[in-house]
Design goal:
Helix content of chain B: 55-70%
Largest interface: A-B, 21 and 18 residues
Number of strands of chain A: 0
CATH class of the largest domain in chain A: Mainly Alpha
Strand content of chain B: under 5%
Number of domains of chain B: 1
Strand content of chain A: under 5%
CATH topology of the largest domain in chain A: Tetracycline Repressor, domain 2
Largest sheet of chain B: none
Radius of gyration of chain A: 21 Å
Helix content of chain A: over 70%
CATH architecture of the largest domain in chain A: Orthogonal Bundle
Order of helices and strands of chain B: HHHH
Distance between the termini of chain A: 75 Å
Structural class of chain B: mainly alpha
Oligomer: heterodimer
Number of helices of chain B: 4
Shape of chain B: rod-shaped
Chain lengths: 311, 71
């Protein structure tokens, strides 16, 4: 084959994925939240970890989360293609082939789990493996298209990282790590449903049942408040464990009062009122929910810093 | 026709190849760093040296040699 004919053959081939396209499969924005919460779980644990091992552990957790994102994109490519928000993702956009995404997802899953087991312990690696399985199989394959409670169940996968971080340091599970898990788990539904109330989504067109469409907006408002109440209990309760303290409790009381007021207002009003002020309360409550999680985990970090400083 | 060593394909895949190269170097650094960290955490190197239960006179402390060993 001459150089010219080779050139022509290659030129006729379709777009070739670049590193950026593969990286986009890993859902980098989700990864950043995973890294932050896992890091907090690791730092607040009562047992110290060598900085390099801690770095590798966080890297493994981030890569594991990215792998589950790639598997999710592989499985949900048909849904993603039908929704505006996700239509430009690498697979529906034609930049990455489905088989490539599956391969990357499986390879990175194996890599992150094995390396975490070798670098730290089997409890942390087992939790990471379960998280990937839960997100890719239980949520994406089994429940996402089957129930409007999908966001509640899917939220569990996003709740595991601080628990894994804790297990990296301690080699086990404690009441503190369970409550950190519960904090994210109970936070996800009101956070997401507050968003769903003021953003017009096309999940329904893609065949994904969403609470606002299957049970109506009144029911969604009820659900926001129903999940917020146990969330407050979990958030305050965490302050009385070994990783809590006055700084955390002060932050928790302030943000829980603020968020609870927003959820109550969402529950208390109807669609006519919401449309009249262009969903002002829903938008405000969603914004508060963003600060809420960051503030709680940030306060836990401050408590850990105070403890290490002997205060 | 002169054969071009640098093909268009090479340019097109440069980003990918560089990325894979950097990932492999990163992996190497992680494995190397983990090895050093884990071995240093052992504290006493004999714990590592005696993993196969084979006697190595060169790692027996001098005081034990002088007193006839520990057994």
């Amino acid at each position: 084959m001459s150089d010219m004919s080779l050139h022509e053959t290659v030129a006729e081939t379709e777009y070739e994925a670049q590193m950026g396209d593969y990286f986009a499969l890993l859902k980098p924005r989700v990864m950043s939240l995973v890294v932050f919460t896992a890091l907090v779980g690791l730092i607040v644990a009562p047992v110290g970890v060598h900085p390099f091992i801690g770095f590798v552990a966080i890297l493994c957790i981030a890569v594991g989360a990215g792998a589950s994102g790639a598997l999710n994109m592989w499985w949900d490519a048909d849904i993603d293609a039908r929704m505006r928000r996700t239509a430009k993702r690498p697979i529906p956009d034609g930049r990455v082939k489905p088989g490539e995404a599956l391969g990357i997802g499986m390879a990175l899953s194996g890599f992150s789990i094995v390396l975490l087991a070798l670098a730290t312990n089997f409890v942390a690696a087992g939790l990471l493996a379960f998280t990937i399985f839960f997100y890719a199989v239980v949520y994406s394959m089994w429940l996402k298209r089957a129930t409007p409670q999908n966001i509640v169940i899917g939220g569990a996968a996003g709740s595991f990282p601080p628990m894994i971080g804790w297990a990296v340091a301690t080699g086990g599970v404690g009441i503190e790590s369970i409550l950190m898990f519960a904090l994210i788990f109970m936070w996800t539904p009101p956070h997401f449903w507050a968003l769903a109330l003021f953003v017009k989504t096309d999940y329904g067109d893609a065949g994904v049942p969403m609470l606002t469409e299957t049970h109506g907006r009144r029911s969604t408002r009820n659900h926001v408040l129903a999940y917020c109440l146990p969330l407050v209990a979990v958030a305050i309760g965490l302050g009385f464990t070994s990783i809590g303290g006055w700084v955390y409790l002060t932050v928790a009381v302030f943000f829980n009062a603020w968020f609870l007021k927003g959820c109550y207002d969402i529950w208390h009003r109807d669609e006519a009122q919401a449309e009249a002020d262009k969903y002002k309360v829903e938008i405000q409550t969603f914004k508060v929910s963003l600060y809420y999680l960051f503030a709680h985990f940030g306060a836990l970090l401050i408590e850990a810093a105070l403890r290490s400083g002997g205060l | 026709m002169a054969l071009r060593v640098e093909h268009e394909l090479h340019n097109r895949r440069r980003g990918r190849n560089t990325g894979v190269g950097l990932l492999l170097i990163g992996f190497l650094a992680i494995v190397f760093g983990l090895t050093i960290t884990k071995v240093l955490q052992l504290g006493d190197a004999r714990k590592f040296e005696t993993f196969d239960h084979v006697a190595r006179p060169q790692i027996i402390p001098q005081d034990e040699v002088e007193t006839g060993g520990t057994n």
